[in-house]
Design goal:
The structure is a single chain. The protein is of the alpha/beta class and 429 residues long. It has 17 helices and 11 strands. The chain folds into 2 domains: 77 residues, no CATH class; 324 residues, 3-Layer(aba) Sandwich (Rossmann fold). The chain has a 4-stranded parallel sheet with strand order 3-4-5-9, sandwiched between helices. Strands 6-8-10 form a 3-stranded mixed sheet. It is globular. About 8% of the residues have low confidence.
């Protein structure tokens, strides 16, 4: 939830920030090896301030000669390293440069990990509340106290395999929970003044799985594609999307909906394909692949997804739907083979053999959709948003992050992350 917007002060580089320590240089070198210095990210974030010297036919930039900073360097003395340091600051802290607080409501179920938010401890702009979106009384109290200008609805049970084995939790959270949240927001919205109503938004974060499955040569999902969910998870998300739409058309609630493709990146819970294979590879365990591994997904780097959500919240039209995709269709087997190749390069096995030898094919799951693909052209054409990461750059960053954060990996793998819940709340989830 985002409270009413306040005036944001532009971040000014301090002398400390301008000084590059040996440790920072080390970090930058590692980032360069991992492909973290993505030129398209830099160009996108800074294009309004520094002209882009060269853009290719597809609108993307190369590694060299991206920005012309000569005018500002001559007039202010700010050099290339200062600008890059600011880029690092902004990229790694979504609250950087903003005084606008965020209220974070989370039930902290099996995947809830407060260690993921450790960097925000003590930051007054971030307020964390442990609670359930199905708790109508709590929702009403939080909305009344914090007076948000927007509600971004991420809360969901999201693992397809879990929905197959136990669908009830998905019905309760994704459908009933969304209903409770909509009811609370509708009541809150109804008492706002005209100006606050005009600026308020409810953003539903949904999935491409509501559209069903595609054949190999079918066109990618567009926003007009009819819903054909095939799993209890996707059916529950489809139902929640329909509820959100209905509250716009029936009650006038200013809603936005985003349907995203498969996310990947840091802090991904290890039940999902990419983190599972990284963790299993390093542990010497089998890398399980459903069926023949030819199921195709469109992969979206998590920071690209976040930037898309921010853009839709900023400029999306109430009542509209926006597909968010990475333009990165990959077969599951190809993804795992690429992960193995990266691990072979960055952290080779002690015996010198390839991690690919650990790939194991297992029985396919029931009702497994063959292909998802997102057409995100509406978001590009109407809101000028495009992903900054290719799959090659994003997956390298992801592997590097897991290699550099082995303590986090160990805590998640062992379940020790739940000790954090006990420390803060006096018991587990």
């Amino acid at each position: 939830m985002l409270p009413p917007r306040t005036t944001n002060a532009r971040h000014t580089l301090s002398s400390t920030e301008k000084s590059i320590t040996a440790r920072t240089c080390e970090t930058l070198a590692r980032m360069a090896r991992c492909g973290s210095t993505t030129p398209n990210y830099v160009a996108t974030r800074l294009k309004d301030h520094y002209p882009v010297l060269y853009v290719g036919s597809n609108g993307r930039v190369a590694h060299e000669c991206i920005l012309d900073i000569r005018p500002i360097k001559a007039s202010t003395g700010i050099a290339e390293i200062d600008i890059f340091h600011l880029y690092l600051f902004e990229q790694n802290d979504l609250l950087a440069g903003s005084d606008e607080p965020v209220l974070n409501l989370d039930a902290l179920t099996y995947a809830g990990n407060l260690e993921n938010l450790a960097s925000l401890e003590g930051d007054v702009r971030h307020v964390f509340v442990r609670g359930d979106i199905g708790d109508a009384e709590l929702l009403g109290e939080l909305l009344s106290r914090h007076q948000p200008r927007a509600v971004i609805h991420f809360a969901a049970e999201s693992h397809v395999d879990r929905s197959i084995h136990g669908p009830e939790d998905f019905i309760q959270t994704n459908i009933v929970g969304t209903f409770r949240l909509l009811e609370a927001v509708r009541a809150y919205y109804g008492q706002l003044g005209a100006e606050a109503k005009n600026g308020f938004r409810f953003l539903q974060v949904s999935t491409d799985e509501v559209y069903g499955s595609l054949a190999k040569d079918d066109p990618a999902f567009r926003e007009t594609k009819r819903y054909e969910p095939n799993s209890p998870y996707s059916a529950s998300k489809a139902a929640s999307d329909h509820l959100v739409r209905a509250y716009h058309h029936t009650y006038g609630l200013p809603v936005l909906t985003t349907n995203c493709s498969n996310n990947y990146g840091p802090y991904h819970f290890p039940e999902k394909l990419i983190p599972l294979c990284i963790l299993n590879a390093l542990a010497g365990k089998p890398l399980p692949i459903y069926g023949d591994g030819q199921q195709i997904r469109d992969w979206l780097y998590v920071k690209d997804h976040c930037s898309a959500i921010c853009r839709v919240l900023e400029a999306g039209q109430p009542g509209e739907v926006y597909n968010v995709g990475g333009w990165n269709e990959q077969a599951n087997l190809d993804v795992v083979n690429l992960l193995c190749a990266l691990l072979d390069e960055l952290q080779p096995r002690a015996d010198g053999r390839s991690y690919a030898e650990q790939i194991t094919f297992v029985k396919d799951r029931p009702g497994h959709d063959q292909r998802y693909a997102i057409d995100a052209s509406r978001l590009a054409d109407e809101l000028d948003w495009r992903p900054t990461e290719t799959f090659a750059s994003g997956i390298r960053k992801t592997v590097c992050w897991y290699l550099e954060n082995q303590d986090w990996v160990a805590h998640v793998s062992s379940g020790a992350y739940r000790d954090w819940l006990g420390k803060h709340y006096g018991g587990g989830a």
